[in-house]
Amino acid sequence: MAKILVGMSGGVDSSVAAKLLVDAGHEVAGVTLKLFSEADIHIPEGATRTCCALSDVEDARAVAYKLGIDHFVFNFRELFTEKVIGRFIDTYLEGATPNPCIDCNRFIKFDKLIERALLLGYDYVATGHYSIITTDPASGRYLLERGTDLSKDQSYVLYALTQEQLAHTLFPLGGMDKISVRRIAEEAGLVNARKPDSQDICFVPDGDYSSFIDRMAPGRVQGGKFIDTAGTEIGEHRGITRYTIGQRRGIAAAFGKPMYVAAKNAADNTVTLGENHELLAGSLIASDINLISIDSLRNPLRVTAKIRYNQTEQDAVLYPLDNGEMRVVFAQAQRAVAPGQAVVFYSGNTVVGGGTIVRAEGLHGGIQA
After folding, report:
1. Same domain assignment for residues 178 and 299
2. Could you confirm whether 52 is annotated as catalytic?
3. Whole-model pTM above 0.85?
4. For residue 320, how far is the Cα from the chain centroid?
5. From the centroid of its chain, how far is CA 136?
6. pLDDT (tens digit, 0 to 9) for every residue of the chain, 369 residues total?
7. Which one is catalytic: 51, 52, 101, 104?
8. Pairwise CA distance, residues 226 & 243, whole Å
9. 3-state SS track over 228-243
10. Do 182 and 90 belong together in one domain?
11. In a domain, 92, yes or no
């Protein structure tokens, strides 16, 4: 029997994870993380519902009571503001595209929470993520694998987990599908059995990223120039935070042909527009690499890779670089490679590792973003 602290967001997944562990006879407690307040994101109290709302804490507490386990609330607001919200704003202002869910997993849920849990005498932290942790009998390394339900698999946002973190993490739902999870919750009479899944970034509940940055960093976003892939000025934009790589919507249709955002440059405040074929890149450079299934890479390695959460993996070869970065060369050119996003490498169902995209290479328009 293990002593397990379950991260309970108030949603059905983490609630069922807790139930499964209780049913298995473990000593279980639940914890809900207080990550921000409405004042922290500059909106009036009660103006909107976020995943850190009081109702979510109440849902998690109600489930814990139903399961007969203790429930705690940990306040990580200061760290979340620094490591997640701050990085989100800074990355957009630098012209890249952040992934705050990965930062939250990396710095909060599987770093600070595990640290706190171990200090309190718990053996593991468990969450409702749909991924699987195994071990490699040959190397003894912990492995991260896709969840059985590929439509819910969350291995992409978990690639930054370290061996130490994987050793103290449980994913009870990894071998399940969402229909089964909801059925368990309904049969157990859990208050959130039919609660819808969260879709937006938790601290931007309306999905309007540019307005959020305007509120949080007033005066930092200024209009600038649209240029084409040859560097010729072709119009004016409303601020680089209002555009994402590959975007067409919101661009004035005065060019006589469809134009898309191909690159952003915060240094000169330009947004490069190109035709669709000019968004294709044959390779990319990634930094801040975390490897899971192997401890290091010295020679080229064939993998599949994905450059966004909902993308199907693509055949690629990894080339380690002397500075610790990685070159990822794709078998087929990829569209709209966005600096700041994660690229995650797979071998079958196993996560090899991943990193942060620094720039695209071999773009047809000659841009090196």
Report:
1. no
2. no
3. yes
4. 24
5. 25
6. 999 999 999 999 999 999 999 999 999 999 999 998 877 787 766 555 555 566 789 999 999 999 999 999 999 999 999 999 999 999 999 999 999 999 999 999 999 999 999 999 999 999 999 999 999 999 999 999 999 999 999 999 999 999 999 999 999 999 999 999 999 999 999 999 898 887 678 898 788 899 999 999 999 999 999 999 999 999 999 999 999 999 988 776 567 788 999 999 999 999 999 999 999 999 999 999 999 999 999 999 999 999 999 999 999 999 999 999 999 999 999 999 999 999 999 999 999 999 999 999 976 544 443
7. 104
8. 11
9. ECCCCEEEEECCHHHC
10. yes
11. yes
Q: What is the DSSP letter of 322?
A: T
- Residue 104 known to be catalytic: yes
Mark which of 274, 303, 334 sits at the end of a domain: 274
Cα separation values, 22 from 13, 40, 113, 124, 252, Å: 14, 35, 20, 14, 56
Q: How many domains does the chain have?
A: 3
List the domain range (segments joined by +) for residue 86: 3-187
d(CA 297, CA 355): 13
Separation of CA 115 from chain center: 21
CATH code for the domain of 306: 2.40.30.10
Q: Is 197 inside a domain boundary?
A: no
Please state, in angstroms and rounded to a whole number, the distance separating the CA atoms of residues 76 and 335.
37
Four-CA torsion 109, 161, 216, 244, nearest 10 degrees: -140
**How deeply is 176 buried, as exposed, middle or buried, from its count of CB atoms within 10 A (0-12, 13-18, 19+)?**
buried
Tokens of 30: 């639940």
Q: Exactly one of 51, 52, 101, 202 is catalytic; name it.
A: 202
What CATH number is associated with residue 229? 2.30.30.280
Q: For residue 278, what is the DSSP state?
A: G
